Amino acid sequence: MAIALEKHGPYALITGASHGIGEEFANQLAKKGFSLVLVARSRNKLDSIASRLSGTHRVDVQVVALDLMKDTAAEELVAATSHLEIGLVVLNAGVYGFGAFLDNSLEYERNLMQLNMVAPMQLAHHFGHKMAQRKRGGLLFLGSAAGFQAIPYNANYSASKAYVLLLGEALNYELKPLGVDVEVLAPGMTKTEGTGAMRGVDMGKMPGKAMDSAQVVAEGLERFGKSPLVVPGSLNRLIANVGKYLMPRRAQTSFIARMIIPALVKKP
Question: Looking at the domain assignment, is residue 174 inside a domain?
């Protein structure tokens, strides 16, 4: 089944909702009649999106301005939404950037792990409990094609998305008998304002064509509940299968590095 208000509503909580894929999730879910909880750091951006969506689609849109890199962020978000029945959680917030691992600060790498791994795990644990008690609901993790293999000069990010992939696939199995759908949506390069200004790389020099965020989100919502893993775009699916079945892992790592190095701002 695809996303359905009857099973996955009435409220959808979206992290990283102030732009890009997160904002597009808000657009498409509001159009389907979901009330929303939008979570990101920028209250001004969230308020603007909330005003637009509530006015256009006549749904309730609530805003939680919160930095999910904080150690206490999950607890604060749980407290802020305790009065709502949240039937769908879109775990979209994340940080990404390129550069040699040793050139990045330890603080940067720890913050990446907090936002990309720890916060989604904490929120999935809390809201998964609530959904299992109601025997309905859904968790949608934003993974990445980067999680399918090691990516030099993107090492910790790709490792974090491998964690998300394996966590989501395992939870799909565990929670399905409890009435909770779980999906990992793993896009390749996607056109957003975030990728346009990505840290440490000139995206204009990266190989391949970026997908539109609306198409990425539409495929994720349409195939929700049908598969634990959704890779949007036929070309992305082809590349993922070539890497999985036809190329040794060491060769694949070397091949990816050779594609990335010309686009790095600081060459190794």
Answer: yes
Residue of 161, 209, 244, 267 marked catalytic:
161
Residue 157: domain span: 5-263
Does residue 268 belong to any structural domain of this protein?
no
Beta bridge pairs of residue 38: 14, 63
What angle do helix axes 43-57 and 20-31 make, rounded to 10 degrees? 20
Q: Number of folded domains in the chain? A: 1
Domain membership flag for residue 245: yes
Q: What is the DSSP string of 224-250?
A: TTT-SEE--SHHHHHHHHHHHHTS-HH
pLDDT of 11 > 60? The answer is yes
**pLDDT above 60 (res 197):** no
Give the whole-angstrom CA distance, residue 104 versus residue 106: 7
pTM, two decimal places: 0.93
CA 210 to CA 168: how far, in whole Å?
Answer: 24
Q: Copy the structure tokens of residue 135.
A: 């025997």
Please check the confidence at residue 1 and state whether its pLDDT lies above 70: no
Indicate which residue of 11, 153, 157, 163 is catalytic. 157
* CATH at 10: 3.40.50.720
Angle at 173 between CA 68 and CA 169, to 5 degrees: 50
**Residue 193, pLDDT above cutoff 70:** no
- Alpha-carbon distance of 95 to 165, in angstroms, equals 16
The answer to whether 161 is a known catalytic residue is yes
